């Protein structure tokens, strides 16, 4: 049971209120996409879930456990960023296993998990290479692998495809969806791209200026947008 519960979260930076009363219940295994224009608070919400930022007020639960005041390392979640920041001097295998090693996991178990994730992601033939010998798409898969090997309760993905070219983005999008079908790990995926939201999400959360405009499955969002902003953003006839 690893749903995510966000209760009345607010976040201010000085006078700037970035999140205004954000509440959302995500069920175990759901793939939820946060979408909205640049600056609307998507990354801030993910950082609060990951423990990289503190909420000004409100509560966050993961798998029923109140994690609001827990350090990032004590939350059983893995974050994937757009700038995937692999260690240049380590091989793909070591990049993927690095976090597990830091936690003192036995080498044989690390190897098992790395090999399994590399198979799933189609990078098994690259395990001995260094990041500079990889394409952008391969690097992003290694970054995903680094999250998968942790076998976390949830994935948080912040615009993971935005550094890829258009063709690769479509391809990798399909791979992430297939991965979710296979692992069924609760996922929050942030994007400013409505097409990604419409094609990948179980439910879409549309944000604007730190507020949720609508929460719905893609079909409902398209057919019954809550307001003109949602209709315009989703490209629905309204
Ligand atoms: P998004 O990911 O939707 O583009 P962000 O969550 O990154 O938006 O940012 C939301 C707002 O908060 C923006 O106006 C941004 O400038 C502001 N912001 C983000 N981080 C900080 C910070 N550390 N200090 C001050 N303002 C910030
Ligand atoms: Mg962002």
Task: Tell me about this structure.
There is one protein chain. The protein has eight helices and ten strands. The model has no long low-confidence stretch (mean pLDDT 93). By secondary structure, it is of the alpha/beta class. The longest helix is centred in the C-terminal third of the chain and has 18 residues. The strands form two sheets. The chain has a six-stranded mixed beta sheet with strand order 6-7-8-3-9-10, with helices on both faces. Helix 2 packs across helix 3, helix 2 runs parallel beside helix 4 and helix 3 packs across helix 4. A hairpin with a 2-residue loop joins strand 1 and strand 2. It binds adenosine-5'-diphosphate and magnesium ion (MG). Magnesium ion binds next to helix 1.
Summarize the structure.
The chain has 8 helices and 10 strands.
- Inertia-based shape: globular
Summed up, the helix count is: 8
Radius of gyration: 18 Å
N-to-C SSE series? Answer: EEEHEEEHHHEHEHEEHH
**Bound ligands:** adenosine-5'-diphosphate, magnesium ion
Q: Quick check: average pLDDT?
A: 93
Can you tell me the residue ranges where pLDDT is under 50 for at least 5 consecutive residues? none
- Beta-strand segment tally: 10
Order of adjacent strands in the largest pleated sheet: 6-7-8-3-9-10
- Proportion of beta-strand residues: 25-35%
Q: Report helical residue fraction.
A: 25-40%
Structural class comes to alpha/beta
User: Distance between termini?
Assistant: 37 Å
For the report, how would you describe the main beta sheet? Answer: 6 strands, mixed
Subcellular location: Cell inner membrane
GO molecular function: ABC-type transporter activity; ATP binding; ATP hydrolysis activity
Domain ABC transporter: 4-234
Protein name: ABC transporter ATP-binding protein
């Amino acid at each position: 049971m690893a749903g995510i519960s966000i209760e009345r979260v607010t976040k201010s930076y000085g006078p700037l209120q970035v999140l205004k009363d954000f509440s959302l219940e995500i069920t175990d295994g759901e793939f939820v996409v946060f979408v909205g224009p640049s600056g609307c608070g998507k990354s801030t919400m993910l950082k609060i879930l990951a423990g990289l930022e503190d909420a000004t007020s409100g509560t966050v639960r993961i798998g029923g456990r109140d994690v609001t005041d827990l350090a990032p390392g004590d939350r059983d979640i893995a974050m994937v960023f757009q700038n995937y920041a692999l260690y240049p001097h380590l091989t793909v295998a070591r990049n993927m296993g690095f976090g597990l090693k830091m936690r003192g996991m036995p080498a044989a178990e690390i190897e098992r998990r790395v090999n399994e994730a590399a198979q799933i992601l189609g990078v098994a033939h690259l395990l001995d290479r260094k990041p500079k010998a990889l394409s952008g798409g391969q690097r992003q898969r290694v970054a995903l692998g680094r999250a998968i090997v942790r076998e976390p309760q949830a994935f948080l993905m912040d615009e993971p495809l935005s550094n890829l070219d258009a063709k690769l983005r479509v391809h990798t999008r399909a791979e992430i969806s297939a991965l979710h079908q296979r692992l069924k790990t609760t996922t929050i995926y942030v994007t400013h791209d409505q097409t990604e939201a419409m094609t990948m999400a179980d439910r879409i959360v549309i944000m604007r200026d730190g507020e949720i405009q609508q929460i719905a499955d893609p079909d409902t969002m398209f057919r019954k947008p809550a307001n003109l902003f949602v209709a315009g953003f989703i490209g629905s006839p309204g």
